[in-house]
Amino acid sequence: MNASPKPLRQDVDVGSLQWRSVLRQIARSRALDDLEESTLLPQRKVLYQFSARGHELTQVLLGHQLTGTRDGVGAYYRSRPLALSLGLPLEEALASTMMRAGGMSDGRDIGVVFNLPRKKGACVLPVCGGVGAQYTPAVGWAQALRYRATVLGDKDCENSIAVAHGGDASTATNGFWAALNIVTTERLPYLFFIEDNGYGISVPSRLQTPGGNIAKNLAGFHGLRVLDGDASDPMAAAALIENAVMGVRSGGGPALIRLVVPRLSGHSGQDTQTYKSETEIVAETDSDPVEKLRAQLVPRHISAADWESEIEQGRQAVAAALAQVEARAAADPARVRRHMFTEIAADGSMELQQQGGTRCEGVVPPPGTEHANPQGPRINLVTAVRRTLERELGMNPRMLIFGEDVGRKGGVHAATLGLQEKFSSARIFDTSLSEEGIIGRAVGMAAAGLMPVPEIQFRKYADPAAEQLNDCGTMRWRTANRFAAPMVVRIPGGFFKCGDPWHSQSNEVQWLHGLGWRVAMPSNAQDAVGLLRSALRGNDPTIFFEHRALLDGSWARRAYPGDEFVVPFGKASLLREGTSLTVVSWGAMVERCEQAFVDTGISGDLLDLRTLSPWDRDATLASVRKTRRCLIVHEDTMTAGFGAEIAACIAKEAFFDLDAPIERLAMPDVPSPHSPVLLAAVLPGVAAISRAIKTLAEI
Ligand SMILES: Cc1ncc(C[n+]2csc(CCOP(=O)(O)OP(=O)(O)O)c2C)c(N)n1
What CA–CA distance (Å, rounded) separates 106 from 272? Predict the structure, then answer.
């Protein structure tokens, strides 16, 4: 059960609701907005204010319905009344908007961008600033509920549901449509809770959806129950919300409810609403759901004095919370770099997030060994990936693989061939063609305690999921380690026999700026096994880049190194040791560098970084200090490629150890070309690498 406030002793039951408890929560929310708008914003103690004035009634009514043990909520910046009704303490709400230490984000994120980790009771997934970003993670939560109930036998998940709360403009976003498509095709226990206040900042609803009413437009959508109502009739709205929630909870499939509400303040504290006419503002004020509620309850069910007393108690509760918050310290700059990744203490213990991933549900993966125990003939990299997935699936019933064509077909690269037959379509499944849906769903599944392993079919096709990838990477940091979404995203990419701007990009540097991601780019089958296993047993989101040229490349073939073999992230592999120079590379360029050393006969160190986040600075600097010359070779384009970062690091840390300028060899700043002739002209080849090695060694 959730932690919503207990009904009052002398509560007023109308229908199935205790209205005095509803009023109490509304009063608190409104008093909080009053305080921020009238005092804290002008005093600059709050820098961003998003008033929920006008939205309180419907949200509190929803909160009263979210009684499932593992209900999950995707919310947005105007969802604070909902969060308060689900148990967010007033003090925490205020401490966050006032950027105080501790609490929901430790001063890192906008106050209304909140989260509520919970193992029992409605859990609010970390809210994002991006409109529409809440929808697909809530889908993942719904799918995890089903998986946990039907496959893991988790009774708590049986009657629980996912709800995604958004405004009218959010129904125009990619996230909304991706979620709608998935929950209806999969018939998931999911409710879209749309509050239509007529505007997205200043843009009216009619420009967000034709005719301005998303409920009308979706009335015939297959597999979706649609309800439409208005907050200006509180009793009817309450009945409709109850109906919507109960329908989903009782197995009726997904639903969408739209409720018309007035936005009684500007979009945010800065918005003066000059785009609304005076008449419109008066009409909105007249339709205030709180006043409508008063008219229905007073004096028939509550006396005017009792009503005023509840409003006054709301103010007092907020004043008391303010006093507590004013006594709290400001967010501490000394902590701002913490919680980008899992932190491991000196004694080896992890400082786990409160929610998300399998470890904080008590799953302890086996330790693994860095000692390879090569078995059998050499296998190609794609077989190495498949075999590792198979082994880990066998050990971890919470691991799920999904993506386009990964099921019956076994993936367009054959990495998941046969896995669905072996582990069932509940665990290995095809998705609709929506990368936002694939990654967003993975975020929700991870938050719900599973280990999702989504596949993006080709490198460039990760772009539609950019928002979810970004929000996943920053989740641990922005919630100050309350939430994290560990997952392994497998992405094949890079050139093959030919190139092209879609399937063949490498562009790994994008993930290095996508903060919070660990990034692996193995050059051979043995490392692929060890890195993938590390990632699958890890506690951080990881991009696992499978290079297309290496999937069946003969150089990359190695014997399977054993079922417990792991390669730790951030540890380069020294493939050759020598004296004249250091060559640093990763992915498909490693093989070419190796060949260039053979062809030139020059003695040098060849470092295969294997992972770029983190990257092995120590090994790189130690080698360069020894050889005094460095060449960096990568497939990604030159400008701001990862080689620039390595070069800057060497220049700063080892400048006086260098006998020659640091050299880089990379693709020029053009997309990957299709014709093999053109590709060969731009991709660093063995001959070009050999020339660079010779030139540098001779300086
Ligand atoms: C992806 C994205 N685009 C633009 C914005 C800027 N923005 C913030 S709120 C908003 C309007 C959203 O309106 P709606 O979904 O109806 O919710 P409301 O604010 O009315 O409650 C916009 C455009 C954003 N936060 N995210």
Answer: 30
